[in-house]
Amino acid sequence: IRTPMWEKIMEVGSGLLSTDKEEIWQIGMSRIPLKRAQTEEDVAGMVLFLCSDLANNITAQSFNVDGGMSMY
Fold first, then answer.
1. pLDDT tens-digit profile of 5-38?
2. Backbone phi, then psi, for 31, in 5-degree steps?
C-alpha cells in the first residue's frame, strides 16, 4: 500500500539512484509477483475472511497480504 513510509523510501531511493520517485515506485512494484501495490481492499478482504466462519479453525497464524513479495 502506498503509505507515507513508502513515500520516504522513494525519496531516499531517488536521491541515492539519481532518479525520480515514481521510478523508484516502479522498481519496487516490479519486485512483487503480482506487479502491483496492494490496496486497502486487499487487506480488508483478509480481515473479513478472518472474521468469518470460514476461518473459525485458524489460530496463531501470520498472513502476508503482499502480492507474493515475501516469497523472495
1. 999 999 999 999 999 999 999 998 999 999 999 9
2. -85, -5
